[in-house]
Design brief:
Elements (H helix, E strand, L loop, with lengths): L1 H16 L4 E4 L8 E7 L4 E6 L2 E7 L8 E7 L3 E2 L3 H8 L11 E15 L2 E12 L2 E14 L3 H4 L5 E14 L17 E14 L1
Antiparallel strand pairs: 1-4, 2-3, 2-11, 3-6, 4-5, 5-7, 7-8, 8-9, 9-10, 10-11
């Protein structure tokens, strides 16, 4: 009996070590996931948000450093305070959403990974693509793994786990060809981006 118990224990440990990472889907049917952007020039501050967030991240709670995946934002989902600003934002000089419909960040690796309980912090290295221009960036990221919390978020309709990702980082507008001729006292060159998004890994 002792031998049998030991054998099952070893098999369970081995299967845990070989368990595949969970795949978290960030296409949020509730529309809560969002990206916020801000340009703070001396004469004028512009702020808006986008809720067209999607993408998938593979995440292993036992080994967070192996995370991989891609997050996208639908460019036409960017919203600003008034209709005229929105028309300019979608147009050719700015985001040109007809030609460049997607903003994306593809995660390549995590550096300086630190995990305490269910929270992992790291420097996320990846390719950020905006208005058709791709650049490698390193951004600070915080990932919170919430086991068995999908049911609480969906009022019991689905069971599974959640992964909440938060990050704030900056890029330069002119690096991505966004209206490079605009006066910087009215339109800041630095765009501050903040993401607070939750992905789900349902279980049947």
């Amino acid at each position: 009996m002792k031998l049998l118990t030991t054998t099952f224990g070893l098999l369970f440990s081995a299967s845990s070590l070989l368990a595949a990472p969970l795949t978290f889907d960030f296409k949020d049917p509730k529309g809560v996931n969002n990206a916020v952007f801000k340009l703070d020039a001396p004469l004028e501050a512009i702020q808006g948000s986008a809720n067209g967030v999607a993408g998938k991240i593979q995440f292993d709670p036992a080994n967070p450093a192996t995370a991989k995946g891609k997050i996208t934002v639908e460019a036409k989902s960017l919203q600003v305070p008034n209709a005229m600003m929105k028309e300019h934002l979608d147009g050719e000089q700015w985001m040109d959403v007809a030609k460049y419909p997607e903003i994306s960040f593809e995660l390549k690796e995590l550096r300086n990974v630190k995990t305490e309980g269910d929270i992992t912090t790291a420097d996320a290295v990846g390719t950020f693509t905006l208005r058709g221009v791709s650049k490698e960036v390193v951004v600070p990221a915080k990932a919170t793994f919430l086991k068995d919390k999908l049911g609480a978020r969906t009022n019991g309709r689905m069971q599974g786990d959640l992964l909440v990702i938060r990050t704030t980082f900056s890029v330069k507008r002119t690096d991505f060809g966004i209206n490079p001729g605009a006066p910087q006292d009215k339109v800041a060159d630095v765009i501050e981006l903040t993401l607070s998004i939750a992905g789900s890994a349902p279980r049947s």
